[in-house]
Amino acid sequence: MSNRYDPTDRLLDQNDESLSNLTSKVSTLKHISMDIYDGVQEDHRRLDDISTTFTSARTEVMASARRLHTTLTVRYGRNAWKIVGCLVGVVVVWLVWRRWS
């Protein structure tokens, strides 16, 4: 029978304790990496949703711009574009003035 204070037993106990600590640390790292993976997947889904939303909005804005172009060109000719340009210019100047004052 071996003695409780046998150096081999102490080394085995220390080894078991070190192994237990290492197992705990590896488990913690595994959970952290799984949480990071889940977060990345969720962010990826959000980016896909945002991309789809922007694509849809772009399509709608382009369709509206085409309809506006057709309406203004057919009804009023080139003079309507001059008026629209002036109105946009006035709004931009007003926004810049408001921001800086």
Task: Describe the overall structure.
This protein is mostly helical and 101 residues long. It has a domain at 7-76. Helix content is 92%, strand content 0%. It has two helices and no strands. The mean pLDDT is 88.
The shape is rod-shaped
Question: What proportion strand?
Answer: under 5%
Radius of gyration: 35 Å
H/E element string? HH
Largest sheet: none
Poorly predicted regions: none
Per DSSP E runs of 2 or more residues, the count of β-strands stands at 0
- The number of helices is 2
Classify the helix fraction into a percent range. over 70%
Compute the average pLDDT: 88
Oligomer: single chain
Distance between the termini: 92 Å
Structural category is mainly alpha
Key words describing this protein structure:
single chain, 101 residues, mainly alpha, 0% strand
Topology:
Blueprint lengths: L6 H70 L1 H23 L1
Organism: Spizellomyces punctatus (strain DAOM BR117)
Keywords: Golgi apparatus, Membrane, Protein transport, Transmembrane, Transmembrane helix, Transport
Subcellular location: Endomembrane system; Golgi apparatus membrane
Briefly summarize what is shown:
By secondary structure, this protein is an all-alpha fold. Helices cover 92% and strands 0% of the residues.
